[in-house]
Amino acid sequence: QILSFKAPDGDGHALESTAARAGQGKFDARASIRCTQRKGQPMGQCDAGVARDAGGTATVIVTRPDGRTRAIFFEKGRAVSADLSQADGSQHFWATKKGDLYLIEAANERYVIPEALVFGG
Prior knowledge:
Strand order of the largest sheet: 5-4-3-2-1-8-7-6
Strand content: over 45%
Low-confidence stretches: 1-15
Largest sheet: 8 strands, antiparallel
Helix content: under 10%
Order of helices and strands: HEEEEEEEEH
Oligomer: single chain
């Protein structure tokens, strides 16, 4: 479920949540990140876009080599989940941070996301 953030901005418009903005392609930044679609595959490159809010809340949309996308959700600077379903074959999600890199496993996929993509900078 995508929720809207209802705090008005300076113009009185409702601000949208990061997930809603990312889903509409309204990104604050784009980058190329390291990724792989299957365990055992070497890491390649995937395009990624991010919609950010203050305090480390962000939604990163990764476009995989097969053209499909994966959303990864961050709260307070922590990777907390991805848009996994039974169709992915697994709903396994694991994330850790090493230095300024988030190392993420979502189903059989792996992603390396720089902290700067999540926070800006």
